């Protein structure tokens, strides 16, 4: 029986991932939350990784605006701690699947970013995550898997879809930016994809390197908000388009966060489904 370790099991994606893994019955799963495993502690990481075949890291600093003011602290979690995990995997022969982000790209493209496209983060969060990616690539050239995701929403934890549903009950109209384009991704669907990738890794079918774990298709935050309202039977015209300069935030956001999904086929896997069909299925679980 293969043994898997999940770091960051208390987060939105981590909780879904553990649920999918434990529904299988043919895997031994150890799930660790931040309170149970401090990934910034190299000694604790080495002890936790020992005896596992695959480590899936969903832990991380996720406060994008907070990272702008505390880049060193964000990099300690998103960068140096990832190096601790990768080093521990290298020492024991474990494979590592690490979650990263579209924010490693500048966001100025006009077509989907390929897995090997040049990185150039526009904010501290993206820079901190890129440090983690580089650590995995350096320390685990033959056993490291980086899965970039974006625009994540789901049942557990705060997210855009849940916010839209909450605000629908509080406001008559909502102004939502229409000049940022990306791929809304259901955390449960991504969790299933990560488990499929783990299976391919254990079977020797998946080459190491970068994969893009986002839904197919693309839309804007405005388009996503309208879809949420329509699927819930609400008046989508209550959503009004606006521009990012109306909502100035400490960290700049990429204007274009659409990722290509070319590498899944070589591992015998399909990319994630279209964002709208996934949202239709997911809405019953998001509150």
From TrEMBL:
Question: In which pathway is this protein known to take part?
Answer: Carbohydrate biosynthesis; dTDP-L-rhamnose biosynthesis
Alphabetical list of InterPro entries matching this protein: dTDP_dehydrorham_reduct, NAD(P)-bd_dom_sf, RmlD-like-bd
What's the stated role of this polypeptide? Catalyzes the reduction of dTDP-6-deoxy-L-lyxo-4-hexulose to yield dTDP-L-rhamnose.
> Would I find Transferase among this entry's keywords?
no
A single GO BP: dTDP-rhamnose biosynthetic process
- NCBIfam families registered for this protein in UniProt: rmlD (TIGR01214)
Broad class of enzyme this protein falls into: oxidoreductase
In the record, what terms sit under GO molecular function? dTDP-4-dehydrorhamnose reductase activity
Q: What is this protein called?
A: dTDP-4-dehydrorhamnose reductase
**One Pfam family recorded for the sequence:** RmlD_sub_bind
Stretches assigned to the RmlD-like substrate binding domain = 3-286
Q: What is its EC number?
A: 1.1.1.133
Q: Which organism is it from?
A: Micromonospora echinofusca
What does the entry list under GO cellular component? Answer: cytosol
What keywords does the record list, in alphabetical order? NADP, Oxidoreductase
């Amino acid at each position: 029986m293969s043994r898997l370790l999940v770091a960051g099991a208390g987060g939105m994606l981590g909780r879904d991932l553990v649920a999918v893994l434990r529904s299988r019955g043919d895997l031994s799963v150890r799930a660790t939350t931040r309170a149970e495993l401090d990934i910034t502690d190299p000694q604790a990481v080495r002890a936790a990784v020992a005896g596992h075949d695959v480590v899936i890291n969903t832990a991380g600093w996720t406060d994008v605006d907070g990272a702008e003011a505390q880049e060193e602290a964000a990099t300690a979690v998103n960068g140096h701690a990832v190096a601790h995990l990768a080093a521990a995997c290298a020492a024991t022969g474990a494979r590592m699947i690490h979650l990263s982000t579209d924010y490693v790209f500048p966001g100025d493209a006009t077509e989907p970013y390929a897995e090997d496209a040049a990185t150039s983060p526009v904010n501290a969060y993206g820079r901190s995550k890129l440090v983690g990616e580089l650590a995995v690539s350096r320390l685990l050239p033959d056993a490291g898997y980086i899965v970039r995701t974006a625009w994540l929403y789901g049942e557990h934890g705060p997210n855009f879809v849940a916010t839209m549903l909450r605000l629908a009950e509080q406001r008559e109209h909502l102004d939502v930016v229409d000049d940022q384009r990306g791929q809304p991704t259901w955390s449960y669907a991504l969790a299933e994809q990560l488990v499929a990738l783990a299976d391919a890794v254990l079977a020797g079918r998946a080459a190491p390197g970068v994969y893009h774990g986002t839904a197919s298709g693309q839309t804007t935050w405005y388009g996503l908000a309208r879809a949420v309202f329509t699927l819930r039977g609400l008046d989508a015209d209550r959503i009004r388009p606006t521009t990012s300069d109306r909502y100035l935030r400490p960290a700049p956001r990429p204007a274009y966060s659409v990722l290509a999904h070319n590498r899944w086929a070589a591992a015998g896997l399909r990319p994630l489904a279209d964002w709208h069909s996934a949202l239709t299925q997911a809405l019953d679980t998001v509150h």
